[in-house]
């Protein structure tokens, strides 16, 4: 734990040290995997440090160490603590704590917003890897813990308001993409899917994701204008040359 703090939390720019620490953890886990069942049990102390201390040390710190959180996510996708390492650590409870961290996240000042959004993004990644291997919990996380509602109602969409604090919580493109990836997984459960459709249907019909500025209602295509004088599906008939050709 002391090595982890020195290499990550005390120096967030020490990427070489962070990567070396993650490599050390991977090597240690590989060695544990080759031991006998009784010997694997001794590795429980290491997993307690990783899941109960290191994750939340990163989330509470004033800097960001994405490498350790990515390591946790990749580990959860690859291994099952009970099956592979005879470890009784309650990962389920830790994952529910990550959901609470996401839900209690507030918008921060610009100076710290990027770092905080990276932490939320990492939490989504960890949860996604965990739920991919534990899909029986999709409905519980989506409905009982309210993760579907959190993503849609607070994270990505918000009713327009003059109070900027009421804007959607997620602003970075990478975080929004990660949230939608999480939503896609959650919607493999029928109840989660139904609640998401109900919410998005109202958004679509009422257009409440827009604000009061007339310009916000303009929809732009990402395709380039055609160089020829004839219009077609590529530019949706929006070239001036098209109108001049037929209406001189």
How is the topology of this model organized?
Layout: H1 2-9, H2 15-33, H3 37-40, H4 44-60, H5 66-78, H6 81-85, H7 91-103, H8 110-132, H9 138-144, H10 147-156, H11 173-186, H12 190-206, H13 240-246
Helix pairs in contact: 1-2, 4-5, 5-8, 7-8, 8-11, 10-11, 10-12
Descriptors for this entry?
mainly alpha, 248 residues
Provide a descriptive summary of the structure in words.
The chain has 248 residues and is mostly helical. The chain folds into 3 domains: 1-89, no CATH class; 90-217; 221-248, no CATH class. Helix content is 63%, strand content 0%. It has 13 helices and no strands. The chain has helices at 2-9, 15-33, 37-40, 44-60, 66-78, 81-85, 91-103, 110-132, 138-144, 147-156, 173-186, 190-206, 240-246. Helix 4 (44-60) crosses helix 5 (66-78), helix 5 runs parallel beside helix 8 (110-132) and helix 10 (147-156) runs parallel beside helix 12 (190-206). The longest helix has 23 residues, at 110-132. It is globular and about 60 Å long. The termini are far apart. The relative contact order is 0.08.
In short:
With 248 residues, the protein is mainly alpha-helical. Helix content is 63%, strand content 0%. The longest helix has 23 residues.
The Rg value, from CA coordinates, equals 23 Å
Structural class comes to: mainly alpha
> Please, how many helices?
13
Which percent bin holds the helix content? 55-70%
N- and C-termini, Cα separation: 77 Å
**Beta-strand level of the residues, as a percent range?**
under 5%
